Amino acid sequence: MSTSVTITGTGCPIPDADRAGPGVLVRYDDLTLQFDAGRSTVQRLAGANVWVPDLGAVFITHHHSDHLTGLADVVLTHWVMDRADRPTQLPIVVPEGPASAFVSTLLDGWIDDIDVRQSHSGRQTRPEINMNSFAVPDAPTEVWRSGDVVVTAGQVRHEPCPSSVGYRVDTPDGSVAITGDTRVCDEVAALADGVDVLVYEAMRFAVFDELPEKRRFITDYHADTLLIGRQAAELGVPKLVLTHLIPAPSTPAERELFVGDIRSGGFEGEVVVADDLYTCVVGDGGLPDEASVDLAD
């Protein structure tokens, strides 16, 4: 068995032809878990050779649109692609609050489409969601389990967006933490303590220092690369994967600026400035990392 992490989307709300909306795929043997579902998630899952009806569960970090616009596509494709017409429900694990409210009405606008497809094809089933909502915990708390795989949720600091969480996945091979959107904070440290791979949203605050003050509000609730480097060094994580990249780098020199910030924070481990579909193994998974934008020194 092996555990791997694939970044299904490295983008942010600003559209980018090369970067899908935020998302992370964790695979352990034949178990596939998707974390967030930004725009074009289904296409990236296809690129990762994932048969969407085989998804084990989807986990949502918070209700910002760039993390959710692909979710209906995932749910409907989970049904449309199921050739066996199985009466299955896609588990969606989500924090209580605005995100769970969104998920609870996700299919309401698609009833006519579902009716037509079901009638025309003679299918017995309809797409269904098995929503598992949980109260945002004060400390990292288990929210889902399948055999030897445990998913833990922890509160993060993404105010003023309420009820935001990050996730940690532990398998027999090792562990990965996924911050979702957050400032660098003690809550992330608690969630990521001892992980093999830390997937962190990353923003270069230095770029925004040069902009008019009215445009700097975005720095209120994202993670500065300098502080990420400092925290990752304190945690001693061996591998740091940067995603949700702001501003999105398009040249090698721009990518190196992200790495330079991380190094300035004191982190000496492996740094990856991820592109979509970057894949790495977790712990003792036993498979080599796939070729990607890996800028470790």
CATH class (first level) name: Alpha Beta
The neighbouring-strand order within the major sheet is 6-5-4-3-2-1-14
Quickly count the helices. Answer: 8
The shape is globular
Assess the beta-strand content as a share of residues.
25-35%
Biggest sheet statistics: 7 strands, mixed
Total domain count:
1
Q: What is the H level of CATH, i.e. the homologous superfamily?
A: Ribonuclease Z/Hydroxyacylglutathione hydrolase-like
What gap, in angstroms, lies between the N and C termini? 30 Å
CATH-defined topology: Metallo-beta-lactamase, Chain A
Helix content: 10-25%
What's the structural blueprint in terms of helices and strands?
Elements: E1 3-9, E2 23-28, E3 31-35, H1 41-47, E4 57-59, H2 71-80, E5 90-95, H3 98-104, H4 111-121, E6 129-134, E7 141-146, E8 149-155, E9 165-171, E10 174-178, H5 186-192, E11 197-203, H6 205-208, H7 225-235, E12 239-246, H8 252-264, E13 270-273, E14 279-281
Parallel strand pairs: 3-4, 4-5, 5-6, 10-11, 11-12, 12-13
Antiparallel strand pairs: 1-2, 1-14, 2-3, 7-8, 8-9, 9-10
Helix pairs in contact: 7-8
Verbal overview:
- The chain has 297 residues and is of the alpha/beta class.
- The protein has a single domain (3-281), classed as 4-Layer Sandwich (Metallo-beta-lactamase, Chain A), CATH 3.60.15.10.
- The chain is 24% helix and 27% strand.
- Helix 7 (225-235) packs across helix 8.
- The chain is globular, with a radius of gyration of 19 Å.
